[in-house]
Amino acid sequence: MTDFTRPWHSSYAPGVPPVVDVPDEPLTAALDRAAAAWPERVAVDFLGATTTYGELAGAVARGAAVLRDLGVRAGDRVAIVLPNCTSHVVAFYAALRLGAVVVEHNPTYTADELAHQLADSGATVALVWEKAVAPALAAQDRTAVRTVVAVDVSADLPAAKRFALRLPLPAARRTRTALRAALPAGTPVWHRLVADATALPVGTPRPTADDVALLQYTGGTTGTPKAAVLTHRNLVANAVQGQAWTQAEPGTETIYGVLPFFHAFGLTLCLTYATRVGATLVAFPKFDPEQVLAAQRRRPGTFLPAVPPMLDRLAASAEAAKADLSSFRYAISGAMSLSPETAARWERVTGGLVIEGYGMTETSPVALGSPLSPDRRPGALGLPFPSTDVRVVDQEDPARDVAPGEQGELLIRGPQVFSGYWGRPEETAEQLLPGGWLRTGDVVRLDDDGFVVLVDRIKEMIVTGGFKVYPSQVEDKLRGMPGVRDVAVVGLPGGDLGEKVVAAIVTELGAHVDIAAVREWCSERLARYAVPRELVILTELPRSQIGKVLRRVVRDDLMASSA
């Protein structure tokens, strides 16, 4: 674009450019540069076991040779079914180095859930956590997977911890059971294969920027998961945009990897952005505040990508333990709204900034963010990233832009926007409009200063008596009600009304909340049609792996129980 002046550029933090140059290179080029520039710098710290950039590059070269010997060729899909660990980082870059396509999967999936995605992607080799080998093998007959390779996560631990796992103690047995599983005879083991391999020859052809790098499944909160096709260029662009936004000094950052790498948010911030800026990645197999505080004493972090519940729990744990989190200069929160209370608590404990980012798997995933400056605005989605354009359009007619300040559907265009859904041309056509505009399905408002403010998701909007009710607006009001700890608002069949508004609430310990109190509270704060007609008390709300409340699951559960 020759002229790319937009109203939001004036709200950028000082030094952030409106446009970034996206290099014409594959993702693996950043790892090559980091290994050359900082061969002795720690690339990954996994519970105290360290791997330098030089060692990581060597392991990736051997891992790529292993995959080649298993028959993987450029364009083939390689499934990764692993928790966060050093082997996950190696496997990710090894597959990309061959020109293969990575397909990320949740390692806690059942055989049926895994079978659907493996069959859909056409993956031929699966690198699988020992604990997930059984469901992977059970799914194999329904897929194109030829080889399931077991990954022993405990092999990534420091030597002292590996030795402790062998001790005949109850704690050691519990940890062994959590990490390891018995394998069928003949199952190949990743660590042995990589240790015995010779590095892939330097002259082996590399992927291009326009080759597909990743199939990332999405849509699980609104329907059957489908794979977003992301190229090397898409993922490189988002890492470059992230570097421009954070203005990270290469070779200095320490990023805490508490988000799962198999999720788009964790993958980009912890695997691709981290490598581009030569950061040390401190990886955790799951989010555990005590583990994070222990790591903080050992290797203080500077940057934490997280979701609001993680920030809140970690800040609370740090306050209780009087732990020092002042090394964290900034945190990026995503996936759900960041409350002003959580933002204030984090900034009080750390002395740093927390900003919100917004995106979708289809945008690699970050498209907007609050500025890393005192002008950040908790509660807003933020400003479009460099080289990113947005429009707000009529929900029924996406060709028509709404007036400034009015609510409408958010459209996004930029170098990080995906090329479509794997094997789903019709759904791709519905999502990608002419000109490269992506329909987000989110109802927003674009303010005069360029900040985008979320109203709600179109697909979760409730239509009752002809009126449109946005669940998040009702939830925001109910969260302020005494006795309410958590809430999800959904629409259920409501006869002549179309749908009725139902609130599923988790109460504070010992609190009593009934429908009369909820209706009285909401009647003073919401339009009459948005007041919940029914109340359900739950002990907890279903959440995704990164802590996002799954309204669809709440709705499905309530529908099933009423039936």
Automatic annotation (TrEMBL):
PROSITE patterns: AMP_BINDING
GO terms for MF: ligase activity, forming carbon-sulfur bonds
Domain AMP-binding enzyme C-terminal, chain residue ranges per copy: 474-548
Domain AMP-dependent synthetase/ligase stretches: 31-422
Pfam family, one: AMP-binding
Keyword presence, Ligase: yes
Signal sequence, start to end: none
InterPro entries: AMP-bd_C, AMP-bd_C_sf, AMP-binding_CS, AMP-dep_synth/lig_dom, ANL_N_sf, ATP-dep_AMP-bd_enzyme
UniProt keyword Ligase present: yes
Keywords attached to this entry: Ligase
Protein name in UniProt: Long-chain-fatty-acid--CoA ligase
Organism: Cellulomonas pakistanensis
